[in-house]
Amino acid sequence: MSLTVIPARSKQEFALFMDLPWSLYENSPLWTPGLKSQDAELLTPGEHPFWESARRELFLVLRDGRPVGRIAAIVDEKYNAYANEKCGAFGFFECTNDREAAHALLDAARDWLVAQGMSFMRGPLNPSANYTCGLLVDGFELAPTIMMPWNPPYYAELLEGWHLRKEQDLFAYLMERSRFSPPDWLNEEVARLKAEARFTCRTSSKATLAQDIRTMLDLYKVSWAKNWGFSPLSDGEAEQHVKELKSVLDPEFFVLFFHNNEPAAGMVALPDMAPLLRRLNGKLGISALWHWWQSRAEIRGGYRIILFGIREEFRLMGLPLLLLDYLLEKARQNPDFQWVEGSWVLEDNVAVNELIEDFSGRITKRYRIYRREIQP
After folding, report:
1. Is 49 helix (H, G, I), strand (E, B) or coil?
2. Beta strands in 177-233, from DSSP E residues, in sequence order
3. What pLDDT, in 10s, does the model give residues 268-289?
4. Rounded to whole angstroms, how far apart are CA atoms 191 and 171?
5. Which residues are within 8 A (CB) of 220 and not within 5 positions of it... i.e. 6 or more apart?
6. pTM value surpassing 0.70
7. At what angle do helices 209-223 and 235-246 cross, to 10 degrees?
């Protein structure tokens, strides 16, 4: 059977690239597609601000003329300048359980990245760590939460068979209402911190939401600056995130903490819209409201912590405890609330991992970022 790799440059080829996951996952009820229009915008230079400082090539692999896999090769100049690296990313990887086809895709991505002067490959990044990233390697039986990926187990075999190796794991922690039982010492420490009143906090609101999101993204930028894989958002990307978060964010689960009226920390937990997205199957149409009505109980029951940031100078002053205590208190006040997922958390961020575990969190999913050197 013939195998061909082609760049997806024409309108028709781009459509094949976008449509491929639906043919692969038609019998996978846990797969959660995004809205196809948003995904297409994210992948289109000139339409999404990520590409103002990045470039990419999309590839399709055809088996006897039929698409069986896809991949994007990406150069993020903003990240490389920030990290002083020559990283070539790969992302948006999907493929049938076909080792030859998968490796042909990875070969094509590598060759393009080598021609761009990159020294190593890292991924999956879709298209960077500020968006969806990582390959699911543990927790396949669980549905993904909003803006988190799901893939079949054989993907790891395809990537590792091409000599990609683990660079970093990302954890998803689950905190369930039925298991909220912080130890006594933790409750006593939280009570002490509240009594000291060194920090003030406020929940966001519809009137302040847009500016609060900008404040949160600024906190994210400074608090994550030294973390592995971090890249600051451009102004355009930040505005794009403001627009997207405003449409789904519950202000009650968005809190900012202040020290002397200056932002010190913040946390955003999004309602888990994944059940609705699975119903929508990539398209907004006249039935969208009906689908929301049918999935509303699931959406109200689960949340995902998507942003969590504390300025470095305040991390040893108890703010991590106050942030999670705020979340759990809000959860207790909300009769619909059942669980919250903290994802993703870096494997090497030991302090945050231990903190979540102290608040009854347990790891339920693991995502992997791979790396391979591509220059001699």
Report:
1. helix
2. 200-203
3. 999 999 999 999 999 988 899 9
4. 29
5. 266, 307, 309
6. yes
7. 130
